[in-house]
Structures are given as C-alpha cells and as structure tokens.
Amino acid sequence: MSSKVSRDTLYEAVREVLHGNQRKRRKFLETVELQISLKNYDPQKDKRFSGTVRLAPL
Q: InterPro entries in the record, alphabetically (predicted)?
C-alpha cells in the first residue's frame, strides 16, 4: 500500500462527507480535519512545518 494519498482520493472523501451532510441536516458547521505526518521529522526539534492549510471550496 502506498503511503501517499492522491488528490482525487482526498477530494472524493471530502465530497462523501459533504453529501452525507446534505442528507441529514444539522444545526452546526461541520468541518473536516486532516492530519499529515512527515517521515524522519521530529516535531519537538523542528517547528518549521507547524500551521494550518486551507483547501479550496469543493
């Protein structure tokens, strides 16, 4: 199994979440959190990659 997730796979997963939200309306903002880990990276030693990333609206 590959350790990389393709762009199409990511977008399809987000679309499924949004589609599920359309079927069952809720009275709050629903968000999707994505966790990315880097190989050979120690977050305690190196803080260069901390922050947030916004995806374009789907």
A: Ribosomal_uL1-like
C-alpha angle 51/18/13, rounded to 5°? 65
**Which pLDDT does position 17 carry in this prediction?**
82
**What is the Cα 46 distance to its own chain's centre?**
22
Calculated CA dihedral for residues 2, 38, 12, 57, nearest 10 degrees: -160
Helices (H) and strands (E) in the chain, counts: 1, 0
Q: What is the 3-state secondary structure (H, E, C) of the chain?
A: CCCCCCHHHHHHHHHHHHHHHHHCCCCCCCCCCCCCCCCCCCCCCCCCCCCCCCCCCC
- pLDDT > 90 fraction of the chain, expressed in percent and rounded: 0
